[in-house]
């Protein structure tokens, strides 16, 4: 029988450009210290590379019973290892990454990939948020061998125009074939209705029928300060870990010399950089663009 028996799981769905990378870097660098407080933190890299069975289930959903059993056993083994020397002390698992709800590419970029069903032959950012969260919950329940879990689902929202603009810029940076679209044309041809906070809450609320779920939406704009990144980290700690806020704050903010604490991680790209990206994209292959993107992000940072 596993010694890992968390009572609570926090799912932080880091919607695009809501400071999630900053939060993840700071939580990840204090992984061991958080374990001492009974918190197992799992960021996007850990989840994708070390919990591949759960990652696959999140994306695909359909698996044979034998595959689910094998995946559950492997996931439990990995989670227990990540929990350190005293897995029985872990009371909270904290998972943070954007793809819990979906990705920009899957939601906004039309591709020629074969659709799995007629129902999926449509677009819309985060349109499968409910389905994906449910898959992840089931995967974790199977791995841990219990459904007696208190779930917290938290996500930040931004002003709609700022959010859409940042999505447009990100897709240009990634080299997708939208460089010819203006912001206005991008808005007209993209579906953001599923990404509205009220819509996300309505979708997630239906999961409460069979589980103990607390939904925690919050405003990125109201809880952050561009001139002082730690304001956002502090407010986030108060929101998701209120009972342990003082201890967690001392680990992540007060008693640390982490270089991530005051760093503007993943800064935006300037208008000049965007103009260059639009003109240059047709000249590069996909692999070449990855290198050129690094050049843009290094030399054309948007001033705050």
Number of strands: 5
Question: Which shape, going by the Cα principal axes?
Answer: globular
Protein structure class: alpha/beta
Q: Mind summarizing the main beta sheet?
A: 5 strands, parallel
What fraction, in percent, of the residue positions are helical?
A: 40-55%
Q: How far apart lie the N and C ends? A: 52 Å
Strand content: 5-15%
Residue stretches low in confidence (pLDDT < 50, at least 5 long) are 112-119
In quaternary terms, these chains amount to: single chain
State the domain count.
Answer: 1
Number of helices: 15
* Order of H and E elements: EHHEHHHEHHEHHHEHHHHH
Characterize the structure shown.
- The protein has one domain (8-160, 192-259).
- Helices cover 49% and strands 10% of the residues.
- The chain has helices spanning 20-28, 31-35, 44-50, 52-60, 65-82, 104-108, 129-144, 160-173, 183-189, 197-205, 220-223, 230-240, 245-254, 271-280, 286-299, and strands spanning 8-12, 39-42, 92-96, 150-157, 212-219.
- The protein has a 5-stranded parallel β-sheet with strand order 2-3-1-4-5.
């Amino acid at each position: 029988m596993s010694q890992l028996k968390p009572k609570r799981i926090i799912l932080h769905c880091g919607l695009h450009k809501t400071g999630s990378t900053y939060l993840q870097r700071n939580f990840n660098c204090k992984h061991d210290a958080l374990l001492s407080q009974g918190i197992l933190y799992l960021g996007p890299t850990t989840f994708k590379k070390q919990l591949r069975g759960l990652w696959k289930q999140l994306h695909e959903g359909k698996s044979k019973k034998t595959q689910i059993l094998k995946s559950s056993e492997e996931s439990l083994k990995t989670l227990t290892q990540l929990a350190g020397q005293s897995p029985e002390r872990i009371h909270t698992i904290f998972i943070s990454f954007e793809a819990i709800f979906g990705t920009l590419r899957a939601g906004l970029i039309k591709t020629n990939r074969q659709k799995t069903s007629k129902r999926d032959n449509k677009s819309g950012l985060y349109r499968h948020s409910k389905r994906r969260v449910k898959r992840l919950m089931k995967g974790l329940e199977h791995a841990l061998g219990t459904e007696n879990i208190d779930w917290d689902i938290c996500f930040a929202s931004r002003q709609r125009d700022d959010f859409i603009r940042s999505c447009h810029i990100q897709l240009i940076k990634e080299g997708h074939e939208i460089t010819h679209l203006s912001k206005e044309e991008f808005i007209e041809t993209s579906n953001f209705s599923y990404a509205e906070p009220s819509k996300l809450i309505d979708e997630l609320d239906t999961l409460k029928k069979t589980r103990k779920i607390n939904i925690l939406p919050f405003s990125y704009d109201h809880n952050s300060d561009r001139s002082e990144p730690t304001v956002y980290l502090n407010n986030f700690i108060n929101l998701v870990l209120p009972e342990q806020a003082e201890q967690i704050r001392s680990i992540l903010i007060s008693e640390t010399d982490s270089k991530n604490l005051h760093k503007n991680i993943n800064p935006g790209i300037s208008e000049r950089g965007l103009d260059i990206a639009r003109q240059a994209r047709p000249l590069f292959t996909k692999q070449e663009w990855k290198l050129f993107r690094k050049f843009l992000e290094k030399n054309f940072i948007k001033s705050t």
